[in-house]
Structures are given as C-alpha cells and as structure tokens.
Predict the structure of Alpha/beta fold hydrolase.
Amino acid sequence: MLRNLVQLLIAGTFWLCLTSPTASAQFAGVDYPHPVHFLNLTIESKPVRMAYMDVKPAQPNGKTVLLLHGKNFNGYYWKTVIQWLTQRGYRAIVPDQIGWGKSSHPDIHYSFHRLAASTKLLLDTLGIPNVTVLAHSMGGMLGTRFALMYPEKVEKLVLENPIGLEDYKTFVPYQTIEQQYRKEQSATPESYRQYQKSYYPVWKPEYDDLVRVQASDLKSPDFNAIAWANAVTYLMIYEQPVCYEFSRLTTPTLLIIGQADRTVVGKNLLSNELQAQHGNYPELGKQTARLLRNGKLVELAGVGHIPHMQEPERFFKALGDFLQ
C-alpha cells in the first residue's frame, strides 16, 4: 500500500520535474555556481533527466576531471574545486546523479552499476574519451565501480574520504525501504544540521551553507519522490559493497583521508561499542591502500569527512601533486 501511494506521488510530481528544469534544489532557491545542462535518458521505461555542469577553462590543458558527489550532497558543493581545476586548465564535468539534486528522482532499481553506466553515457555524449575521477563519500563507491567497469576511460582516480571502505551490512542492522522512507520523510533542517556536524571536528558557521542546500529538498514539490530515492539509495550503499574489489583496480589511485573522520552509514543503529569499532578512517585508509595495485595514501591530520571544505589548502596540495 505504501509503495503504491509513493508511486502515485512520484507520478504526480515526476512530470513537473520533466517540464521544469527549476524543480527540486533550484526550485527551493539553490543556485548552482555554473549553468546546469540536462541529458535526457530512459531508465526502466521511464524518461528522466540527468543534470550536470560542464565548466571549461579559459586556457585548457586538454585534461578533464569528473566530479562525483556524496550521498547527502550534489554538484553544488564542488564549487571551490571547480574553480581550482579550471584555473589550472582542467575541464570539470559535474553531474547530479539520477536521484539527486536537479536530476530526476525516479522510482527505479538504483545500483552503482546503473549510475556508472549513466555517467559514462554523459561523457560519451559530450565526446570526452577519458577523465580523472575525483569522488567523495558515496561518490567514492561510485567512482570505484566506474573505474572497474570502464578502466579505459579513467586516467586517474582520487577517492576523498570515501564511504564503503568496510562492508556495512556485516555489522549494521538491516532496515527495510519502508523504515528508511519514514525516516527520510521525518527529516528537518535541524536533523540535517546535526548529522552534518559529524562531518567536522569543529563546526563553523560557513558549513551551514551545505545544510541549507540539503534542506532545500524539504521545500521541493517532489519531496516524496526525493525521500523515496534517498531511502532506496541508502539500501544501495548497504547492499552493494565495493570494499572487496579494491585489489582489482588497475587505475593509479589517490586516497585522501581526513584522519578525524568516523563516518559509518547507519551509525545511529549501532551500540556504543560497535560505533567505537567501525568508521576508523585512519586504519581503513591504510587497509585500503594496501589493497591497491597502484595506490597512494595522503593522510590529513585533524580533518573530518569533507577535506575540500574543511582544509582546502591541504586538500588541493594533495590533489595537485597527484594530477601533475
């Protein structure tokens, strides 16, 4: 019954999303730092649109960087990274994955394989043969899958505090889609703020901007579809681990790991004892680096889940050294 109701709600708002590029985040007053374009796709017989920014430098160096956002983010939060890249001659391709941001939020089977395939189609449509992938948080899981599926397209891979360095389903209690959907529907700006506070060792007022962007979904006319997509993609992370496949990566890979990060997907479901045992990014970073065939680990002391926000100078130093 709940699923049928959600499908009706999605159907009612889905066409609004298709007919107006200002739906979702932009509808609620979030302006992206660069013009947003749309790629029309058909997924499971549903017409959808994939939003993306394509930012070209004034003096191109012939290289392109693909930026993959995290679970609670979208292309907006890459704005300082885009500026840094384009100033150095890189073209930046910044998609909102299907189910996020200004893209459509269809009721489909979400998988990292599907997201990777849609992202490749975007690059192929734009005529981009290969890229460096810069992927943060959940984007790290997607970037890993993308590099495994299309190694010929990935020159280098940068994983910025990726989630999925451990298999959450081995220690986090299972939640049904309906349970997760009810949680998503009960979200408030303050609940988003409290969760995002866990990303940083010390909260600063400027971090509220990302809370504002995430909370804009609460005002969206298609919020029920967004909440359902959020619930389904939580299970995608839970059920589709990539941590067993890092040893298969052949792409030169940089791990940038903020040492103060303790992110665990589903952490609120764990006992204090289990919380202390998992999300140990200093150890997870070393463990993952040992699995990589061609990997480099940069550890950023005192930095939490979003290095490019908290410590941009140290983040860009690590990124620049690897891109050279």
